[in-house]
Amino acid sequence: MRLPGRRTWKLAGLVVVAVAIVAVIAAVLVNAGGHARRVASVPSLPPLLTGVPARGSHARLFLGGENFWWVRGRPWAVAGTLLRDGLSPLLPHHDGAEVDQLAAVPGGVVAHLSDISTGITYGALGRVVFIPAAPGPARVIGRATVIAVAPGGRRVWVQTGVQRLNHGEGVGAGFRSPTWAINLSGRRVSPVLQLPLGLVGATEQGPLTQNLASSRLQLWSGVTGRLIRLPVPSTADFVAAGRDRLVWASFGRSPALHVTDLRTGSGVAIGLPKHWVLPSSSYPPQPASFDQGGRRLALPLDRTDSAGNVNAAALFVADTATRTMRMIPGKPVPFPAAATEVADTLAGSWDRHGDLWVLAMSPDYGYYQLGFWTGTGPLHTYPIAQDSPTALLAFGTR
Asked: Is the pLDDT of residue 147 over 80?
């Protein structure tokens, strides 16, 4: 079971230093020429990823967190700008914002900018922004606490959540939140549905929620708002969704990853490696990433000791055809022995060339490292850099 809101609670307590934005934001977001800044490597810090030094790349990446980066070519040559601190025209009159979700859509990327300045308990009501991959203006297309992009990428489900709860007592199992779909121009293209708080994904039929109180995973008709029966147990934990399939996890004596065909109810199960579990660290959940063929799924797992304490994380690739799961080359990223809370540490995203990009974040959010794996041979790594991205999206991701 995933623990709701851990990252949101953590973000609500961050103190963000205001930095003035003096250029037009749309031009800076998508234009690498003239304003690229070099992110200094940090040789004194231990590497997060184990591999061989990368010798150039064809990187086209988006990174999100306290900053937003549009990466082209070599990952340490980063063009970007801040989308925070109330100084951006995308988030006026607020003290802070984080890019906490990134999703691929036709022609660019949709980002959710969470406003962390208001002390909101579950989710932060921020902006939904379409950022084109080619030169052109970024634009706000909606407001939401969480988003889920429908298959094909032309509809974005938004949920407005709840801004303040009674004395922080939590969300009741029956709590409902306005949820609807918009297109990439920001026009509403579905009825306003009253759904349980906890939007996690979307299928061709409609949005998926995992109730933050009961943890029950449910599929809803995007037209009528009626509940659609899911051929999965009530204890299923959401991992990823596609047009007609659902990826979920089961626990117990034999924890496994399941891929279920929503049309037929049939599916495959892939056992998790011993002592490895799915992270239970954030809402919204970090997205798992399918490759272009839809066969391989990249997702992070946490390693536990005999007492059940998490001590490391690694990125794994699940192959739905062979029903196997393997860790990418390298060593697991260890957590500090004194850590009392485990933050999201790894993210993976496939690009259109079939390479798997990896973002490793230090547990204290002080620095990060990028790398890529071609599917054979070692992991290729770039120098460590200072900053705190938490989201990764390779251009061309499904």
From this structure: yes
* Residues 177, 187 contacting (CB under 8 angstroms): no
Q: Please state the domain extents for the chain.
A: 6-394
Task: Provide CATH code, domain 6-394.
Answer: 2.130.10.10
Order the strands of the 37-38 sheet from edge to edge.
37-38, 77-82, 67-73, 59-65, 389-394
Q: For residue 365, give Cα distances in angstroms to 166, 252, 323.
A: 31, 32, 34
**145 in Cβ contact with 123 (< 8 Å):** yes
Kindly report the pTM of this predicted structure. Answer: 0.81
For residue 167, pLDDT beyond 60: no
d(CA 269, CA 258): 4
Q: Which of 102, 99, 110, 60 has its CA nearest to residue 287?
A: 102
Q: Is the Cα dihedral 225, 227, 230, 236 positive or negative?
A: positive
What is the token pair recorded at 121?
A: 């308990």
